[in-house]
Structure formats: structure tokens, C-alpha cells
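hey so u asked for the seq, here:
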Amino acid sequence: MSNFIPLCYNKLEFMRDIEKDLASLMTKQRFLHIQEVKRIANDISHHYNIDKKKLELASLLHDIAKDIPRDEMKSLIEKYRIVFDRIEEKEPGLWHGVIGAFMVNEKFSITDPEVLTAIKFHSTGMANMPLLLKVLYIADYLETCPNGDLLERAKGNIDDVLKEVTKQKIEYVLKKGSLLHPRTVSLWNSICTQKA
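ran it, C-alpha cells below
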């Protein structure tokens, strides 16, 4: 049993409890989204040396805070003493990853840094992303914007697909007229400099 699952649980019981809690915390549509992200991430993961249990947890939990009303999110920000940067303050759509990482730690006693990092940064990405976060970032995008070609390519060259997904996400944010987070800019720059 992996060390990130509390000792009082067996894996099956733990995952069942998580899914039951998630179903009560989010809309049916969001719950279906996380199930599909989990499936896509699992499909990609078979082609890489990645901890599938951690990926399953991160996939299920990445949007735990997404459907929380704004006022409740503000209370959680105070409770967890979260300090957002200037861009996050102005873009509440980015709050759920950061809040979610704190919730997952508190609610399920998950302390694994890979899982918490993946949850925290699944929306913006970050420079030099670990493999688990790359897979979640791509799976989350592909669930929202299905693309069979990108899915197949992700099984062979995750970094090429990471570049394409990041490019499409940046174009979407710019087209919306929203602020682009510096972590996403750093991700893009790290991808481009690795290719050089």
C-alpha cells in the first residue's frame, strides 16, 4: 500500500470513500468530468513509468473545489491562510486548484507532494512539470476539448502534446481577454527552451 493512503484504509475502501464524498461536493456534470479525466489519464499512463495510484488520486481530486460557491471559497482562503499572487486574485477561476490541494490534505489526510502539486497546478501548469502533472494537465484538457490525435500522440511523446495543449490553452485565455498566469508563461518558456 502506498504511503499517501492513510493507514486506517485499504485502497479500495479509501477510493470508494473519496468518490462518495466527491459526488456530494460537486455537480453531476463535474463528477462525470473527473471520472473521464481519470480514464484518459489512466489510458496515457500505461505508456510511462508513473505511479498509477497517485495519478488516480490526483485525477479524481483535481476539481474538488471547482463547484464551491465564491463566498465559500473566500472563507476557505481565510481558513487555510492562502495568499494568492496578483493574477490569482483577479482570476477566481484559478482558485480551485490551490484551495483543492488544502482541502484534499485536510479532508483525506493526503500529504503526498506529487499529488498535491498536481491538484494545485493543474490549471496553470508550471515550468519543468513532473510527469504526473503533465498527464493530469493533458487529460483535463482532453476531457474538455476531445482530440483523438492528441490523445494518441500523448502515449508516445508527452512533451510534444504538452506543448500543443499549452499553446491551445494560452490562445483560449488570450482570446477570452483574461489574464495569463506567469506559471503558464514559465511553462511555455520551459517547453520551448527544452526543445532548443
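Residues 103 and 136 are 18 Å apart (CA to CA). The chain has a mean pLDDT of 93.
lmk if thats what u needed
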